[in-house]
Amino acid sequence: MKIEEIRSKTDTELEFDMGNLKKDLFETRFRTALDTGTNTARITDLRRSIARINTVLHERKEGIRGQESRA
Fold it and tell me: Domain range holding 25?
């Protein structure tokens, strides 16, 4: 996910997306442990997307960078 796409979403949409990304991360890690042919770079992409969402939610909560909570 790009940061512009994340910033354009509401808080509830971001929380929903984060739940889906965490579930996908778990499944990807599980598949990687069982099968050596999986794409391990996907894990890095998922972790970064989760971190971006957490950052934007924190910025909105604390009022950093002029972001308002978009509940």
Answer: 10-64
